[in-house]
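Hey all, quick one. A colleague (J.T.) asked me to put the iron/sulfur cluster job into the tracker so the inputs and the structure tokens live in one place instead of scattered across chat threads. No bug as far as I know, just bookkeeping. Sequence used:
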Amino acid sequence: MQNSLNYIVSKSEIGYILNNVLKGDRLNLHDCKELIKSDDLYTIGLIASTLRKILFGNTTTFINNIILNYTNVCVTYCKFCAFYRPPGHEESYTHNIKDIMKRIALSNEMFGITQILFQGGHNPNLSIEYYEEIFNEIKKFYPSIAIHGLSASEIDMISKVERSSIKEVISRLKDAGLDSLPGAGAEILDDRVKSVISPLKIKSNQWLNIMKEAHDLGIKSSATMMYGTVETDDEIAQHIMKISELQQKTNGL
Ligand code: SF4
């Protein structure tokens, strides 16, 4: 094994990255760019597998989850989105608490779910009480089901509707039962890309700051990347580095 690893390290143009991760180094911006450029899939796989083993050993997990899109009303009009409908549109909807609880009861009965991914559009007609009431009710009847809900941009929308700080909004939602934040809305954390594909959405630093506020309040989050639009390889690498820096700062991912 050691011989074949030495061979790969010496022959592959990204072998030095494998060597560095085997020594315990984190990936840096240059490594990310080289990995994106490389077509040496075998070594990329070895690097990914090494990092996974360092971080998680041989543990693999999954979540038995439903996606609950509580509203499709949105005023942010992202260019790539086919889900939203403007306020007042004939196909727009917002689920009430009764419908939401019915859906959860059915999913729990059929599949024994352990998590609800609760996400929707940026609906300016929903106050924070709408979310608090739903989260309280979920936790009252299903205390062991986790609520993974509301992306950073939905949190921003609620703070605008409420004229409250991000911190206050997240604290209130946490008290009501919010367990963690989905990483949606990051797309590519670069304002040039955002100005083209989602000009009305929060900017990169706002996304990062909201996640940091959540982590500081004990709410963990995931992080996503939506690529394949107008971004460059360099912007993808920067995106990964920004998330890595956030993770190092707060350990909340
Ligand atoms: S904020 Fe979300 S729901 Fe609204 S348009 Fe953008 S992607 Fe669609």
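Adding what we noticed when we looked at it: The mean pLDDT is 95. The first strand starts at residue 65 and ends at 69.
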